[in-house]
Amino acid sequence: MESAETVEREFTPLVAIDDHFPKYVITMDEFFKDTIQGVRHHHISEFLLKKEW
Q1: pLDDT tens for residues 14-25?
Q2: pTM of the model
Q3: According to the 3-state scheme, what is the secondary structure of 5-24?
Q4: Which sequence spans correspond to the domains of the chain?
Q5: Helix or strand holding residue 25 (H, E)
Q6: How buried is 1 (Cβ within 10 angstroms: 0-12 exposed, 13-18 middle, 19+ buried)?
Q7: Please, what's the b/e burial string for 19-48 (b: 16 or more CB within 10 A of its CB; e: otherwise)?
């Protein structure tokens, strides 16, 4: 998530979906830790090792 354009590209399509299912952006970026309008960002290892969501 190096730039604002990247964040917008990855999060905007998921924000536009109008339902109540959880949405995640999974990346290899260890420093970007943010949730944007309900869309959660997770590092790939955190996502794969998590036992419950």
Answers
A1: 999 999 999 999
A2: 0.82
A3: HHHHHHHHHHHHCCCCCCEE
A4: 4-49
A5: strand 23-27
A6: middle
A7: eeeebebeeeeeeeeeebeebbbbbeeeee
